[in-house]
């Protein structure tokens, strides 16, 4: 598994994805490439916001722990991905977390809206599993191994 060279701490990914097949592909692909030590998967935008802002069911979750990266689908039930992104980037502490949109939408309006809300990266899910797996491996190595977060 990839671990932070200096801290030796496990890597945490928050995966916000409502499609169970896509979520499983992401988890399996990251696991096959030894990219993630821990993945927290949430299937709707409301749960994601509650988790990040420590509300409701998640009010007692671990102190100041933040994921190292958030993988966010745009099409989510309850609260859509763009609203989740906007809430993250409007919060002084949470805005530091890299957010990567991983979605099926290649629509210009979605791409522009995501970057307009300060997304760190926008990826369109390839239909081919091997290409999807390669994209996730590269994503994992960049955001989780090479990139340095503000909590290091």
Tags for this model:
Rossmann fold, alpha/beta, 5-stranded parallel sheet, 152 residues, 5 strands, disordered N terminus
Task: Kindly describe this structure.
The model is unreliable at 1-7 (pLDDT under 50). The relative contact order is 0.18. The protein contains five helices and five strands; from the N terminus they run E-H-E-H-E-H-E-H-E-H. Strand 3 (69-72), helix 3 and strand 4 form a beta-alpha-beta unit. The chain is globular, with a radius of gyration of 15 Å. It has one domain (12-143): 3-Layer(aba) Sandwich (Rossmann fold). Strands 2-1-3-4-5 form a five-stranded parallel beta sheet. It is α/β, with parallel strands linked by helices. It has helices at 20-32, 45-52, 81-90, 108-116, 129-146, and strands at residues 12-16, 38-42, 69-72, 99-103, 121-124. The longest helix is centred in the last third of the chain and has 18 residues, at 129-146. The chain is 38% helix and 15% strand.
Shape: globular
What is the CATH architecture term? 3-Layer(aba) Sandwich
Give helix % range: 25-40%
Annotated CATH topology: Rossmann fold
Structural class: alpha/beta
CATH class: Alpha Beta
Number of self-contained structural domains:
1
Distance between the termini: 18 Å
Number of β-strand runs: 5
Low-pLDDT residue spans: 1-7
CATH homologous superfamily?
Response regulator
The amount of beta strand, in percent, is 15-25%
* Helical run tally: 5
* SSE succession: EHEHEHEHEH
Mean of residue pLDDT values: 83
